[in-house]
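Subject: Re: docking follow-up (nicotinamide-adenine-dinucleotide)

Dear J.,

Thanks for your patience while I sorted out the input files. As discussed at Tuesday's group meeting, I've set up the holo structure prediction with nicotinamide-adenine-dinucleotide included as the bound ligand rather than trying to dock it afterwards. The sequence and the ligand SMILES I used are pasted below, so you can double-check that they match what you have on your end before we go further.
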Amino acid sequence: MTDRTTHPGLVHSGRTAFVTGGGSGIGLETALTLADLGADVAVLDWTPGAAAAAAERIEGIGRRALAIEGDTGDEQTVVDAFAETRRALGEIDAAIACAGVLGEGGPVFETSVEDFEQVMGVNVRGSFLVVREAARYMRPRRAGAIVLLSSLDGLQAEHGMFSYCTSKGALLNLARAAALDLARDGITVNCVCPSVTFTPLLEGRLATIPNGDEVLRSYAERHPLGRVLTSRDIASAIAYVASPLATGITGAAIPVDAGIGATWDNFRDPPWVETR
Ligand SMILES: NC(=O)c1ccc[n+]([C@@H]2O[C@H](COP(=O)([O-])OP(=O)(O)OC[C@H]3O[C@@H](n4cnc5c(N)ncnc54)[C@H](O)[C@@H]3O)[C@@H](O)[C@H]2O)c1
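The structure tokens for the complex came back this morning:
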């Protein structure tokens, strides 16, 4: 017999989470997953009606919810959103920054200052504000988990996506620096780095080109698992990293990438070997 306690499994019962970008895609699936696992959830989203619709679904799961409409890049909005969440749902255990934009896309030599600032303003400043405000509430309790959404485009760069890649790379060191600043307060800060994930963001981008379906098929084929990711794949990883099971992980960049980071080449057989 050992004196070990039974593994509790993945639970968020009795906890409160704050999710930006919770009105769509990965953020929405994260908010619903955390609610499935027992958390009350506040959702901040700037798309009109999106946070309210998410809150309705969270309440449908039987959890308490708070809908906040606003811009995660705006300091006062984020300050007020955390205060309102604390008032309405109690102490904040997990903060997840999913809100993100692609911007116009384009190579460095065609990138406008406006596009660069917009992408950095949402993706980097928005995440910084979430970390800072979450820390304000978590430090006195000496516990908490903060998760930021970087990307495979943060770990490696993608041609023609200058502003986005710059912002997602910045998040990796933002998380490391914040993880060190908060480590002795018992607060973890990590990045989850998805590869291509089928969400309204990706659907919107594919809709702008004539051969969207073909591009999606080729994305799937290039990933060793033979498919692109789903919002649920990413939300499951976030739910783990934000849970009490992951208190030993901080300052990490965690790929959820269907294996594509394991190879430097597209997934295909070398010409001299038949493996499939
Ligand atoms: N989909 C992918 O392939 C993929 C891959 C890697 C990383 N990511 C990252 O995951 C995150 C979620 O992406 P998604 O694909 O679910 O996108 P999505 O567009 O489906 O959802 C993003 C949500 O964030 C909200 N939002 C955007 N800017 C905001 C702002 N300034 N303030 C408040 N809300 C804002 C939008 O209204 C939307 O509801 C993003 O940070 C994205 O960069 C996505």
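A couple of observations from a first look. The radius of gyration is 19 Å. DSSP finds nine helices and nine strands in the chain.

Let me know if you'd like me to rerun anything.

Best regards,
T.
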